[in-house]
Amino acid sequence: LGPDGASLQARESRYGAANYAPLPAVFQRGEGVWLWDVDGRRYLDMMSAYSAVSFGHSHPRLVGALVTQAQRLALTSRAFFSDRLPVFLERLCTTFGFERALPVNTGLEAVETALKAARKWGHEVKGIAPERARIIACEGNFHGRSIAIVGLSSNARYRAGFGPFPPGLERVPFGDADALEAAITPETAAFLVEPIQGEGGIIVPPPGYLSRCAEICRRHHVLLIADEVQTGLGRTGRLLACEHEGVRPDGLILGKALGGGLLPVSAFLADRAVMDVFRPGDHGSTFGGNPLAAAVGTEVLALLAETRPWERAERLGAKLVAQLRQAKLPGVREIRGRGLLVGVALDPAFAEAGEVAERLLSAGIATRDTNGNVVRLAPPLVIDEDVLDAAAQTIITVLRTYPG
Ligand code: PMP
Asked: Which ligand 1 atom sits closest to the C-alpha of 141?
């Protein structure tokens, strides 16, 4: 860090809660796949703010939509209609093939929305006794950090100290459809799953897993809810990661990239049979579906349809994985992922992924580690092929010369 960076870091540490441990780069500007720190140094963004910046930083069309809308009308709350929200809702429903959408802000809120919908559906439609509806999630999941949602987590670090958690939240091993079927009881309302686990270590389940889960859920009248907050909108090489298995979930959770990396925009989508359990007053948020979010979200969906970034993600991701595998790097256990959601799983005896991320930062690549001693590689989907090739070479050099 230069002097400006060091002084800003010190101020953040002095005044901020210590709930994050950022790497030492103080960013000031972003454009496309690039970030610049306060000392003018340029970095390649290889994590896209946990997969939220799929179209790159400050995409001109998205910034244009944001600024135009900010100058016109930014917030009314849902106490009234706005002229932007209906357009966004219609586009969400037609893009993803659902009858209704409920907009909120963060990924966590959309997950909470889905869980509330599932429980009420369980009581009103499936006939589960009040207060008895159960939700099943997966070991190793990440769905956010509210008390209810960390109550679903298997990660002791996310849970420790924050209990007690709400009852009726359970887990089964990820990737094991038989375990799901064994865990289902007449009181099970929903199965919540990430089609590919992101924060859990970029884990792709075995082929056929998701389609078997869908079949099991259908047979037991259990809602299949896909959390595509991280995997959705092209990241894994399909518009939705569920499409890899031809699965259409009963409920779909979107977030992150839906806000174009400019503001928090998330949504829960479902058909009327599920969504119509919500009646006025049941759920909401002051900022959910606000005109600014709706304008940017609509432009994001237009960009998606026009540029089909999942095609690039699939091709470039496969190439990145192949390059890293061919390098036969020391200490690498596995290179895994789909599309541009890639993880480099390291042998802990060789290196700590967090330390490798620090080395990468020094080499001009901004990314972080995630659970399971994995270095995540998830650049904006707009990355140029030659830029990604160069990044692959840098990563290979850093790992080959580690600890250097
Ligand atoms: N679900 C998944 C799959 C996620 O990856 C995340 C964030 N990493 C969330 C939910 C929570 O999103 P947010 O941080 O916007 O609350």
From this structure: 3
Buried b vs exposed e over 364-397: b needs ≥16 C-beta within 10 Å? Answer: bbbbbbbbbbbbbbbbbbbbeeebbeebbebbbe
Residue 293: which pLDDT band, with cuts at 50, 70 and 90?
very high
**What is the 253 CA–ligand 1 centroid distance (Å)?**
10
Q: Per-residue confidence at 202, pLDDT binned at 50, 70, 90?
A: very high
CATH number at residue 296: 3.40.640.10
Active-site annotation holds for 227:
yes
Q: CATH number, domain at 360?
A: 3.90.1150.10
Using the 3D structure, point to which of 280, 307, 334 is the last residue of a domain. Answer: 307
- What is the C-alpha separation between 291 and 69, in angstroms, rounded? 7
Residues 6+ apart with CB under 8 A from 337: 196, 202, 204, 236, 317, 321, 343, 377
Judge whether 142 counts as a catalytic residue.
Answer: yes
The torsion defined by the Cα of 272, 277, 280 and 281, in degrees rounded to 10, comes to: -140
- CA-proximal residue: ligand 1, atom 10 (nearest): 143
Query: What is the C-alpha separation between 389 and 398, in angstroms, rounded?
Result: 14
| Residue 120, pLDDT score | 98
pTM of the model: 0.98
Among 256, 278, 287, 369, which one carries the catalytic annotation?
256
